[in-house]
Amino acid sequence: MKLPNSFYQRQNVTTIAKELIGKVLVTNVNNKLTSGIIVETEAYSYKERGCHAFKGMTPRNKVMFEEGGVTYVYLCYGIHHLFNVVTNQKDKADAVLIRALEPLAGQSIMQERMKTKSLNKITSGPGKLTKALGIDRNHNGLFLQNHEIWIEEGSSRVLAKSILASSRIGIDYAGEDAKLPWRFTLMGSEWVSGR
DNA sequence: TACGTGATCACG
DNA sequence: GTGATCACGTAA
C-alpha cells in the first residue's frame, strides 16, 4: 500500500522522518522495478539554516513549497542526485532526505546500475541510492501517488526505541542548526551510510 | 585527506 | 556574465 498524501502533509517534519524508517521506497524506472527499506533519513525545515528553503523560493527549491507528497530531487556537487520527499502544507517548505536503504527488490538491476557484482553498501548513502534506483533530476516534482516513484508500508513494524537520532551530515554552513538531532537511523542496520 | 564536477545563486 | 559554494563518493 502506498503511503497516503495525509502521511506527508502533517506539520511535524521530524515525526515524518522518524516514521519513514522501515518504510519501503520503490521506483519503476524504464520498466525496471527496484526497492529498498529506508534505514536512514534527515529532516529539513524552512525555519532553519540547514534547509534549502530557508532563504525563500528559488528555481531549484520551488517544489519544496508544494503540498507534501511530491519528490524533490537535485544535483549535489555536480555529480550526485539527492532524493527528498516534500512534507507539510503548501508554502511550508519542509522535506525529508532519504540517505540509505537496505536493498529489497531488483537487486541485480541495482548492481548493474552501480557496476558492481557485490551488494555490499550498494545503497548506503544519499548519492548511491538514487543511482541504484535510477533516480535523477527528471524525477523532480513527481507525485508519490504516481507509478514511477512511491513509498509503501514495510512488512514489519519498527519500534520507536530502535530509531537513533543524531546530527545531520555535511551541513556545517548551517551553524548552530547543524547540531539539531534531525538525522534518524535504524539501530543495528548495516546499511546506514558511514560518514 | 583531497578533489572531481557542474548546477545554482547572489553579486554586478 | 562570473565566481564561490555545495544535504557526496572514492581513492589513497
Task: Give a quick set of tags describing it.
single chain; DNA-binding; alpha+beta; 4 helices
Describe this structure in words.
With 195 residues, this protein is an alpha+beta fold. It is built from 4 helices and 8 strands. Strands 1, 2, 3, 4, 5, 6, 7 and 8 form an 8-stranded antiparallel beta sheet that branches. Helix 3 packs across helix 4. It is globular, with a radius of gyration of 15 Å. The model has no long low-confidence stretch (mean pLDDT 97). The chain binds a DNA duplex (12 and 12 nucleotides) through strand 3, strand 4 and helix 4.
Which percent range describes the beta-strand content?
Answer: 25-35%
Shape annotation: globular
What does the largest sheet look like?
8 strands, antiparallel
- Rounded radius of gyration (Å): 15 Å
Low-confidence parts, pLDDT < 50 over ≥5 residues?
Answer: none
Please give the share of residues in helix.
10-25%
Alpha-carbon distance between the termini? 33 Å
Instruction: Give average pLDDT, whole number.
Output: 97
Figure out the total of helices: 4
What order do the SSEs take from the amino end to the carboxyl end, as H and E?
HHEEEEEHHEEE
Tell how many strands the DSSP assignment holds: 8
* Structural class designation: alpha+beta
